Amino acid sequence: MNCCNEKPVIALYSGEKLCKSHFTEYFENKVFKTIRQFELLDKEENLGVALSGGKDSLTVLHILNRLSQQNPKIKTNAIAIDEGIQNYRDKTLEKAKEFCNKNNIKLDIFSYKEEFGLTLDEMLKILDVKPCNICGIFRRYLLNKKSKELKLTKLATGHNLDDECQSILMNQIKNSIEASARLGPKVGIAQDDKFVQRIKPLYLCTEKEVTTYAFISGLLDEFNECPNVSQSFRAKVRDMLNELENKFPGTKYSIVNSFLQTLPLLKQKFKDGAIKVCIKCNEPSANDVCNACVYLEKLRKRVVVN
Amino acid sequence: MMNVSVFIDRENKTIQLNNISIVSDLLKKLNINPVTVIVSRNNELILEDEKLKDNDEVKILSVISGG
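Structure tokens for the assembled complex are given below, as produced in the milestone run.
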């Protein structure tokens, strides 16, 4: 069923086909509804958007920046991490800088090289580890630390429905239920001053919807996949979910919606787990020493030995 | 038969299809899951049931990014 006489640009899983303007309205309304439904924003915010320059983070920044223009009490800034992934991050960061310049958005960039002394590419030559694991640990560490330094009240990320669905299944497969308790449109089990609250405005948007919105909004003209992603467990789960979605449309919505019904129970179950502080860096940690410091120590030892 | 020029993974390919083919036939021939891509012709998005024509130039863009 078509929305109107205009040519459709997307078919939703319900079978409805939407033209460019109706899809834009549908998508933006869905993001605003997600923000309201899950109370992602307060009346006043000094909001940060974790910007990679990829389609998801550009889309979330594009929409939140428009919200800022309508409501000056919501201030939107961008924060980017340069992991040092040659022929990937350098390109997406160019896109990020261009977008922020054009839209007059303050952008702060922090790099692994400056903060840790090595790029991710250099780290992977030294340590035999899965790239996404080590990269995720350092990225989350820097985003939280720098968001606090920048006095950001919340940090919005470009995580979409596909990302969440993958995380839910990955945690089930690995029996990491406590990790699932930290998922949801508002990240974390309990609010704590050690963390800048992370929020996911694209929580209910599929990756295909985000890409379609980014395409018709002129947010990017080329899609890049991180060279390390194909090695990840996430990529295998992603492919499996896409096969299921193709055969049984609506699978991803069903998984996330049923998860949302159990999420309050999970958060309740794990709410008493104390958040410690790393004895080396003072950043939040599940153990005495945080994972970032553990890896940094390993890297230092290997660099000295070699 | 007809020829459709396809831009995918930064490469141009020419794919031969029968005359009544639609986008989903092209994706099947290339073994691509339609959930994972968007397809454009003349910089306009087209859906899986769109009819293709001889000498069409089509771009297949992966929705998967990041890492």
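The two ends of chain B are 40 Å apart (CA to CA). Residues 2-62 of chain B form a domain with the Ubiquitin-like (UB roll) fold (CATH 3.10.20.30). Further analysis is deferred to the final report.
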